[in-house]
Amino acid sequence: QVQLVESGGGLVQAGGSLRLSCIASGSIFSIDAMGWYRQAPGKQRELVAQITSGGSTNYADSVKGRFTISRDNAKNTVYLQMNSLKPEDTAVYYCNAQAQTRSSISTRGYWGQGTQVTVSS
Questions:
Q1: How many Å apart are CA 24 and CA 22, to the nearest integer?
Q2: Residue 38: which of 99, 112, 120 has the closest Cα?
Q3: Contacts of 66 (CB under 8 A, 6+ apart)
């Protein structure tokens, strides 16, 4: 199995910054894409940003130019630098990893427990 642990959430004023981290551990053979999703109260979970093992990135239109995703493959870690935060960025942020374990022949998605980000106006 693969465990994902997020950190870095919190309360920040509008215009401020936060940096989220997610560390993957367990019986990992390989990790393909890693990403961040978020879910606000009463809304569906949505993709925020994704990064492949080769470093290609994809962002939601709402965060382009403000958020930056990066990863350290050696540490099985993905980061999300969030700048110019807005109240509408308030949500629980979840880390996702498409990973293959040492006992599996296929890749599947794993989720972290989520970290709360609250942006006050």
A1: 7
A2: 112
A3: 82, 83, 84, 85
